[in-house]
Amino acid sequence: MPTSPLVTLSDGRAIPQLGLGVYKVSDSEATDAVGHALEAGYRHIDTAAFYENERGVGEGIRSSGIARHEVYVASKVWQSDHGYDETRRAFDASLSKLGFDYLDLYLIHWPAPKQNRYVETWRALESLKADGVVRSIGVSNFHPHHLERLAQEGGETPVINQVELHPWLQQQTTRQYDAAHGIATEAWSPLARGRILDDPTLAALASKHDRSPAQIVLRWQLDLGNIVIPKSITPARIIENIDVFDFALDDDDRARIAALDSGQRTGKDPDDLD
Fold first, then answer.
1. pLDDT value at residue 1
2. Using an 8 Å Cβ cutoff, are 266 and 165 in contact?
3. Active site residue ranges
4. What band does 154 get if pLDDT is binned at 50, 70 and 90?
5. Which of 71, 81, 99, 134 has the smallest number of CB atoms closer than 10 Å to its CB?
6. Rounded mean pLDDT, 166-176
7. CA of residue 89 relative to chain centroid, distance
């Protein structure tokens, strides 16, 4: 059974580098997908209030028979719940749906800069960590200037910044900022929602290594040091996505993938989301 390596975060806690994402997965589908993932060796599940599948994720973990402390669980607060009190209420709702008494990681899902409330929201995350109901706190979809504002306001530095990141959108500026400030970069949509898998460069590399294009991209993500959360509800694809620890890309492979960077997003720019 493949086992993901661990990444040690700036707060000293460890996170499995490869996990399962469950965006646009229903509650019932999430239960099954999480069960398949845990059976395949995953020990990191990433959900969010906005996904409306936290109950299914919790049930999948409980049904697996694997102890809660052996599974790293992350969720996120949506921008409609920004603000100190609102975030704490949203967290309580998420924890209740999951059926747990703590989270390993809680993130601000989007900065929603037009609301101008993400600093208040961050204060709530800090308080939840101080209360012991969250082990680690971080952010998602933050540009460096959003992170810089948190730094200027004082308080803790996020341990993770989860951003859209794939060969078409390699986020070099954000990754460099994160690395310089002890923030781990985590990739959502690591396969560009599957759209990149027909790219001829990736097809050639897949043929070279006798792997799938998805496995090539995930191996590249891991080589960059990113935490990565590919999403799938298909058992065979779930197994394929974690079977990436027994081959290596070379410098030429990585250079060919680096050349695919075009800045193309599959989601919104964080500065454009209310």
1. 79
2. no
3. 51
4. confident
5. 99
6. 98
7. 23
